[in-house]
Amino acid sequence: MAWKLTGALKRQPRIPADQRIYAIGDVHGRADLLTDVFGQIDSDLKARPIETSVQVFLGDYIDRGPHSRQVIDLLVERQNLHHVLFLKGNHEAYMSQFLSEPTILSQWQRVGGIDTLLSYGLKPTGQEDSEALRRMALTFGEVLTDTHRLFFERLNLSFTCGDFLFVHAGVRPGIPLQKQSERDLLWIREDFLLHEEDFGKIVVHGHTPAIEPEIRSNRINIDTGAYATGRLTCLVLEGNETRFL
To answer: Residue 110 — φ and ψ, nearest 5°?
Structure first.
């Protein structure tokens, strides 16, 4: 399915000639939907060959859905065959923090962290004491393969191409884009979402689920709540064209 939505933008942002960006929203453990999106991208590339294409994933690969581990396997395999770029989401931040601060599980589990641990073969109850949490974090660190560990360690905070900035959550209004804090890039909501002025770039983001992609004059939200809705959104940018697979 494709929509022509550039009319919602006050100006016509562009990316450089002979380039195409595929931006993919929050996957959240839905390996089945990710596989479908890969197929759609591959079909689009076959139908519309182009010299340079980049697949940008906006973070939140894990939690909530049932197959977080399989999602990472698919993404690692994808980078062996395509030009890809992986951004960090707040759910990956939770996961990394759990390895060094196991007591964070009480917060992480409220946003689906248990689903990730289950996908890696752990069986938490959510009622563990501090010693049990420490042992669980150690075990989790042991079952993370070197490939998966490197994947999480090498996640980027942002990516810029032409008139677009890609981040997980958004940016802090009034702060230069190059000086944004990691916390805002991963977590910000209302201050960013309610801001109607120009950020300096059109911000492509996820983090806040919506029924359909949201096109605003200064931002594009492509988190369509895949884990709950069964809709994983892929935005395609080429020249001044904006479309969706």
So the answer is: -70, -15
Asked whether residue 102 is assigned to any structural domain, the reply reads: no
216-224, long-range: CB < 8 A, 24+ apart: 216/8, 217/8, 217/9, 217/10, 219/170, 219/192, 219/193, 222/23, 222/24, 222/25, 222/58, 223/25, 223/26, 223/58, 223/60, 224/25
Tokens of 144: 């993370």
pTM higher than 0.85 for the full model?
A: yes
Residues linked to residue 20 through DSSP beta bridges, in sequence order = 53
Beta-carbon count within 10 A of 100 CB: 9
Residue that is written with structure tokens 């990394």 in the block: 96
Residue 46's domain comprises 6-89+156-244
pLDDT digits (tens, 9 = 90+) for 118-142: 999 998 776 678 888 898 899 999 9
Six-digit token string for 197 = 């002025």
Q: Based on the structure, what is the number of domains in the chain?
A: 1
